[in-house]
Every structure is written in structure tokens, then in C-alpha cells.
Amino acid sequence: MTELTAEIAAAAARLIVDEGMDWGPAKQRAARDLGMPRGALPGNDEVEDAVREHIAIFHADTQPAELRALRELAAVWMARLADFRPHLTGAVWRGTATRLSNIHLQLYCDDGKAAEIALLDRGVDFDVAETRGGKGRTVDMLVLDAPCPALQERVTICLTILDFDDLRGALKPDARGLTERGDLAALQTLLDTADE
């Protein structure tokens, strides 16, 4: 990693952790704020390392409890949405989340509208947005907010609607040997391990 890239990664990490920005916009804003060329943008692995370092230096006393609260809330929603094979992804799964982080769940559905109907049947208000799914295609994302008693605030939950077939290969580890997502059993293992 070049010095420029490392500087952008550190600035992006501050924006992600301290302001709750998403990774892509945080990298672009960090580069712009530092007057750096877009070609110097760091990769996600470099940003994740910078986020972990920033948390260790500035948030080591609060982040573990915040992460646990978000993971416990994610588990509740994964159980509620069990029919749609939910998988947790993003910062809450990877362990870099703080109270400003959104919970990202991927739902693998035979019928994309079934998740919307299930939420409506339960009286859950949500907005529909679009995001990039697997293979670069645009997919629906249901955005809702839910109370998180442990944090004493509301948390945004993003439900990305994917085809059932997208589940194949979804648990392959990345170059670092880490998975990008996990199901409820894998999340429960993370929660149990944190208690030890």
C-alpha cells in the first residue's frame, strides 16, 4: 500500500467509524478532502484494516458492547425472517460495527415480493430502495428501523433481496480466509465465542 493510499484509508476509516458513512462514499470523500486522485483509492481490505486500527485506538472501550448489541438485534431479525434464509453481512458480521453502523441482512427468496408481504403482514414499516446485488445487477433493498434497547436508540436494518440461486457460493471465504456473510447459526457462534 502506498503512502497516499494509506492516508486515504485512514481518513475513510474515521468517516466510517465516527460518522457512520458507507465505505464507497467514505473513500471518495477522503480522497477529495485530502486532494488526492481517485486512482489512489484503497481497496476494501486496506480500509477494513484502517477501520480496525481506528477502533482499537479510539473506540476500544465502547465498540465491543455496541457490536454485541447490533449482533443480538440482527439475530432477532434473522429469526423473524427465517423463511427467507437470512445471512448477516457487512460491518456487523465482520466485527467492525459501531452504534452508527447499519445492520445488513441478505434474504435469499424464491419470490422477491414475499419478504415485503411478510413485513407488511407484521405491520413493519419500510422503504424500498435499490442496491447492487451479486453479478453487478440492481436488486431491491428494504430499509427499516428497529429499536435497539441495548443501545437505547433505533438502528437501520437493510434487507437486500436476492434470488435463492444466489445462495450458492455465498459462503466462500475471501482472500483472507474470512466469509463475507453468515447465517443465524454462524452468528450465534460469534456471540457465544465473544462470551468466553
What does this structure look like?
This protein is α+β, with helices and mostly antiparallel strands and 196 residues long. Helices cover 45% and strands 20% of the residues. The chain has helices at 3-19, 23-33, 44-58, 63-80, 90-94, 112-121, 184-195; strands at residues 87-89, 103-109, 127-132, 138-148, 153-163, 181-182. Strands 3-4-5-2-1-6 form a six-stranded mixed beta sheet. A hairpin with a 4-residue loop joins strand 4 and strand 5. Helix 1 (3-19) crosses helix 3 (44-58) and helix 4 (63-80) packs antiparallel against helix 7 (184-195). The model has no long low-confidence stretch (mean pLDDT 92).
Strand line-up of the largest beta sheet: 3-4-5-2-1-6
* Count of distinct strands: 6
Mean pLDDT: 92
Q: What best-fitting shape do the alpha-carbon axes yield?
A: globular
Helix content: 40-55%
Report strand %: 15-25%
Low-confidence segments? none
Structural class comes to: alpha+beta
Distance between the termini: 35 Å
Helices, by number, come to 7
Q: What pattern of helices and strands is seen along the backbone? A: HHHHEHEHEEEEH
Main sheet characteristics:
6 strands, mixed
Radius of gyration: 17 Å
